[in-house]
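Support request, please re-run this one:
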Amino acid sequence: MNDGVLWITGGGSGMGAATARAAASSGWTVVVSGRRRHGLDSVVAEIREAGGSASAMVVDVRDPEAVRRAAAEIEETHGRLDGLVLAAGLNAPARRWDDQSMAGFRDIVDTNLTAVVTVVDAALPALRSSAGVVVVISSFAGWSFQPAAGVAYSASKTALASVVRTLNDQEAAHGVRACHLCPGDVATDFLDQRPTVPDAEARAAMLTPADIGHAVRFVLDAPSHVRVDELVISPVYRR
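Re-run finished. Output below.
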């Protein structure tokens, strides 16, 4: 059982929520953050009912000052931070060169890329102290070019691979380890952001949020001398 403190962004739904449940089940004290209080509180209540430890913080990861306050509050409350999971993400139905807007492009890149760097930067002093672990939940599109993923989404997710590599290269001396986690299709509400929303039959063949939660827990719980640089997870059948 792990007794560390874990911060999960995008923790109120989907893969973030599944990760919170999986990590709490192996002993992590979980802090979930996101923009919507209701989803966060539901995840916290579920974890506590199962005997785990969890709390919630409303944080928009695109707001650097809010991120800095959240990181400081976690360290003040718990005295440490041992793990960080970046699960907040965004895409849009208008994602091609012929229909995207630059405002939409910036919003996606700000959420998927800039916000990840902002949160890591705010959490890094505490993670250096604890020789902590970081898991960036990226996408299959961050590992292999997927034309339908969109201009902004593909660019932002591909860039996360470099973010993780530089973190591992420059922070290994402090014991910090980072993983670029690249899931294929996962049956979450995120699919509603596609131009053509998958039906129930298509979703039944996809990965589940719990599949990703278990994979993240594996990375989080690995011994301190083990680093999982990149992990790609796909459903057996891809439509």
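DSSP finds seven helices and seven strands in the chain. The mean pLDDT is 95.
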